[in-house]
Amino acid sequence: MIFHFFHSNSMQNLPPNSSCTFKVQSEFGGRFCIPIIYAFLFILFFFGQKNASSQPVNLAFSHPAGWHVEPFDLQIFINYLPAEIYYTLNGELPDTSSMRYDEAIFIEKKTTAPNYAVIPTAPEYWQPLQGEVFQITTIRAAGFLDGERITPYHTASYAVHELGSSRYPFPVVSLVTNGRNFFDAEVGIHIPGALGEAGNLQTGNHYQRGREWERLVHLEFFEADGTPGIAQDCGVRVHGQYSRQLPQKSMRLYAREEYGDKDFDYRFFPQKNIDDYKRLVLRAANPNNFHVPFKDELCHLLVREMGLEYQAFTPVVAFVNGEYWGIFNLKERHDRFYIQGNYGIDDDGVDMLERSGFVVDGEAAAWVEMMNFVRQNDLSTEGNYATINEYLHLDNFIDFVVAELYLELWDFPENNLKYWRERTPDARWRWLFNDGDSAMHEYWKSKIRELLTPLDNAYDDEPFVVLLRKLLTNETFEARFYQGFLYHLNHSLSPTNVLRKIDSLTNVYDPAMPEHIRRWGYPATMNDYHAAVAHIRQFAALRPAALVADLEAALGQPFEVFPNPVGTQLNIHLYGNTVDKAVEYILYNSLGKDVLSGVFSENMPTLDVSGLANGVYFLRLDLYGIRYSIKVIKV
């Protein structure tokens, strides 16, 4: 057996006056300098355990995984003297044909050419590298005796850079796997491979789904300050629909007991006090969102303030087998385990559907029952309206509709609809905001009129649209919907709030974007990226006024006055207004003269018109950036 000590040259990173080392004179005449902490490791592994029968045989690495500012010698220890250690540096699991560990492994900043980043991962959109690819070292090791593996596999990722963890502004995810799992023509899930058809972008290995196309990876997560977070084996699949044909793939991570851990036991997201996840998504910063890597994340921040269920996230930089793989957003996945983690409901007791009623988890019986009631009954009556309220969480439904219409998702309402309920007799359906990549394109586009007051039958068979239109036949719901819409446009969706969030996210992502652009080639330049951010800033500034105009065209003005004709006191009901948003008003007579003016600062103000002569007047209100007027008759 070869004794593995630290040679004195490997101690160059210690302070000159460090007292935490001692020297050992070996029988071969070499002098070695060992930090005390590593000496304890040596004593524990070599002298505290004489054979494999008394304790499990295991490995230990001399240095923690993660960021290091200077090169170092990595030592590998095993607690069973007759065993040999074999290791790999390419992501493959080691066997006795791999490199045998005979001396310290020198870990330094890698400058070799990448092996995987040069592989085209899409038939049409892939771009060659624009410069060097930053790399980290990934080591996989195991102990063997007489050709048989006698220890678990140990995997660790080491990044050497003079800036240490401050090289990136957010956490790092390292995925280590056999390269065939991602890039082999027959089984690789990140390339078109053998299943790709020429001229058909929606074919290929990367479009396959299910357990058959789940691959084993080792996941390591390091916080932004370099603190190791979690390290475990898990399953990975390609995630998404259209985005599968893009070079940078989104990935879905699965914790399973067969991989060693049935959960990801870590608090990834500071927004939520949850530290137990079954599934996670590494969402690519892909180009179908106008080159903005945080558009979906912006949408989830907004719907969170609206009170809707949202996916917590954190931006990360990812590495695949040690090679820089760009910016991703690590986030929760909307499934039954999401409901379990966020609501404490057993995952076996959740019904979750998508689009027009396809079952994701559980069953659809309660949804079918509700939609049969909706189609067969007049919801304008208060009795039937009360019944539908027992099926459906109405405020949640209103908030969801407002979010979808504000964000201008081009595939709404045909796609990205997901809704759930607990499978109990009195549970109500709630809606999940699911995907914002297709959001915020043109501020002036709106589906309000075609959904609410259709001129054709384009959506007549969509259950979601049937439900919305039938509910709007009820005066109580229509007023509630209008008020809710205006309230959100004035608060969580106001230009001030949305622009503030865009600026905050831009500050977070900007420092990491140049390297991402060099890796993937999209957006093409930082100027293109900033232009895309400017586009959604314009959307945020102009969207509310455009929607208010469409709401007025579809549902009338966002206020009512009564009585009209009026004798002494005119009541005004401002839908969705609150005391923190003053509304200017002017009352003109028929000659255009200002006879009353001021500011309303409450939802239901009154005007004393008792001193005015009988006749025709016009009340003007400046509301939500739109100027409204209504005729008032004084009698």
Task: Give a written overview of the molecule.
By secondary structure, this protein is an alpha+beta fold. The protein has 13 helices and 30 strands. The strands form eight sheets. A seven-stranded mixed beta barrel has the order 13-14-15-16-17-19-18. Strands 4, 7, 8, 10, 11 and 12 form a six-stranded mixed sheet that branches. Strands 21-20-22-23 form a four-stranded antiparallel sheet. It is elongated and about 105 Å long.
List descriptors.
635 residues, 24% helix, single chain, alpha+beta, 7-stranded mixed beta barrel, 13 helices
Shape: elongated
Termini distance?
108 Å
Strand content: 25-35%
Poorly predicted regions:
1-53
Query: What does the radius of gyration come to?
Result: 31 Å
